[in-house]
Amino acid sequence: MTEPASDQVTAATPVPRRHRVVIIGSGFGGLFAAQQLEKADVDVTLIAKTGHHLFQPLLYQVATGILSVGEIAPPTRLILRDQKNATVVLGDVNKIDVAGKRVHATAGHIAFDLEYDSLVVAAGANQSYFGNDHFERWAPGMKTVDDALELRSRILGCFEQAEVIDDEDERRRLLTFIIVGAGPTGVEMAGQVAELAQHTLKDSFRRIDPASARVILLDAAPAVLPPFGNNLGNAARARLEKMGVEIQLNAMVTDVDYNGIEVKDPDGSVRRIDASCKIWSAGVKASPLGRMLADQTDAEIDRAGRVLVRKDLSLPGHPEIFVVGDMMSLDNLPGVAQVAIQGGKYAAKQIINEVEKGKTPADRPPFKYFDKGSMATVSRYSAVVKMGKIEISGFIAWVMWLIVHLAYLIGFKNRITTMFSWGMHMGGDHRSQLTSTKQWVYARQAIERVAADEAAALRTAEQARRDSAATDSNADRAGQDAESVH
Asked: Do the bridges between strand 318-323 and strand 260-264 make them parallel or antiparallel, or are there none, so unpaired?
């Protein structure tokens, strides 16, 4: 019997597979988690339904023409192209199989799966209309690039239409801008719309005075910027009112339509405000992936759809799944960028400790959030900053706001171009991004119509299939009856 040669391979040696980390979402939590894993002995796949990392705190500046989309939304693929262990995938996650450790997603008409050993869910939050989702058609939110571009075109379109119309009542409606929600986004948006009308567009029209525009900021809450406290909230309110912004508090929106909104006051009376442009910034709700996870685990969700996580940001009974950012609920932490950034880094560090250092989930320290403060800009040269017990408003707070937001922008080029754009704005209120198109305004409605048409076509095709199957079944039955007669 001949012995095999010594160099002959008789059995394949299995190649050890690296730990697979799937990250859902390219926002602050997802991106910083991926970057934290750059030198780890793991394979990272970041999947998101958009191909960019959105610096959401500056989205209102895109909507009002100060910044371009590219300055606050660099491509995720380019951000991570030098990170060799990271793969970026564009896709919409529609199912998470917790038991099978698999993420199901689609990219257009292509369906695919991603297997994971560790999962970081950082899919963020959407605008909440508190059960009145039909408001969205007439009052877009401020959560995506599409929202910002649509709002920019709506705002500018109102001035353009007011210039050519002769009906004074309709002109007043066109020049009335309502911002619902007196939180940071609402305050920032109201200030910028007022500045746009009073300064940027000055002398640009012949039949109307843009400064005559009515800007209304309203909220069901009794204060402006409630999380900042009374002092800073009152400072922001005073600055906005000096700019001509009308502040209406304790005013609950009960209906929104094409022509305006209906508001319920504390005494129960309902009044109407006619306005063409309505902007919604009153609340948020977590990604529906949160409920999907809760349905498969012992986790619970709160009223906003956020997942109640353990102290290590994981799900009960599933230490391999982390939920971070706006999707998580823990110790009443706010839905701000710093919570997402620190949560993403924390989750990545736990994965590294367990993959490379042999630690177990039981060794994880609880997540501790370091509060670096909150800030919101009100107008040029005016902002509010809260850091612990320290409260600052006015010019100094505005300078601090500039520095912090520049520091957190991704990419040196984006910082430089943003500084240039801000310089043009501060020096003479020039806004270089005032391009608008009809397509941006009507895209939302067009997409809704296309989706409705596709759904109707699918229903028709399914009914036709059922009818055809029923016809074939009847024919077969008739044939069997004929044979039995013979």
From this structure: unpaired
Q: What is the DSSP letter of 180?
A: E
CB 384 within 8 A of CB 228: yes
Per-residue pLDDT of the chain in tens (486 residues, 90 and over written 9) = 444 444 434 445 555 789 999 999 999 999 999 999 999 999 999 999 999 999 999 999 999 999 999 999 999 999 999 999 999 999 999 999 999 999 999 998 899 999 999 999 999 999 999 999 999 999 999 999 999 999 999 999 999 999 999 999 999 999 999 999 999 999 999 999 999 999 999 999 999 999 999 999 999 999 999 999 999 999 999 999 999 999 999 999 999 999 999 999 999 999 999 999 999 999 899 999 999 999 999 999 999 999 999 999 999 999 999 999 999 999 999 999 999 999 999 999 999 999 999 999 999 999 999 999 999 999 999 999 999 899 999 999 999 999 999 998 988 888 999 998 888 888 777 888 999 888 888 777 777 777 777 778 878 887 888 877 777 666 666 666 656 555
- In this structure, how many other beta carbons lie within 10 angstroms of the beta carbon of residue 442? 13
- Set 188, 391, 454, 462: catalytic member: 188
Name the amino acid, one letter, at 267.
Answer: D
CA-CA distance, 109 to 132, in Å (whole number)?
A: 30
- Note if 462 is an active site residue: no
Q: What is the pTM of this model?
A: 0.87
